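Postdoc handover notes: sequence design on the structure in folder B. Input tokens:
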């Protein structure tokens, strides 16, 4: 009886190992460009949506953006709070960056630079809203850093910018 049980366990274990190996090969065959595309889109969406709230028309800052940058937002540095320098300029710069950089990401155009810009913005947002680190800023920073390191992949416009010299 124990020999049959051991044999049965051995076959079950071997089948599980075989399944695991096949699943690993299948998952490893996913082209890197697909998750990079997903990261580009996933990072672009929250920034683009935020950028839309900053405008009441072409280059006209919304009342809400003006209020936030002039009254509400403070930089939390070394245990102290400091008002934003040049708050309306900062609001306009943030609003432009939150529209342009996500569009570049989705297109896969200048991906590394766009992701680096969003990584820098995430750092400033962290200084502004320190409580958001675990839920928002850490995932954004991880996505942006991944795109800075790996680029946008083949499903992007970046590969077309490469000049091939013979």
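Designed sequence:
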């Amino acid at each position: 009886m124990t020999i049959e049980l051991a044999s049965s366990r051995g076959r079950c274990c071997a089948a599980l190992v075989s399944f695991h190996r096949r699943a690993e090969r299948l998952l490893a065959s996913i082209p890197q460009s697909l998750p990079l595309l997903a990261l580009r889109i996933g990072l672009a969406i929250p920034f683009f949506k935020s950028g839309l709230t900053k405008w009441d028309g072409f280059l006209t800052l919304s009342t809400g953006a003006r209020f936030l940058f002039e009254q509400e937002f403070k930089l939390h540095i070394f245990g102290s709070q400091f008002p934003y320098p040049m708050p309306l300029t900062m609001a306009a710069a943030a609003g432009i960056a939150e529209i342009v950089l996500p569009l570049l990401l989705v297109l896969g155009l200048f991906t590394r630079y766009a992701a680096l810009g969003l990584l820098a913005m995430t750092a400033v947002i962290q200084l502004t809203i320190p409580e958001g680190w675990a839920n928002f800023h850490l995932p954004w920073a991880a996505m942006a850093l991944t795109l800075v390191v790996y680029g946008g992949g083949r499903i992007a416009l970046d590969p077309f910018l490469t000049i091939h010299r013979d």
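Context for whoever picks this up: The mean pLDDT is 91. Don't rerun without checking with the PI first.
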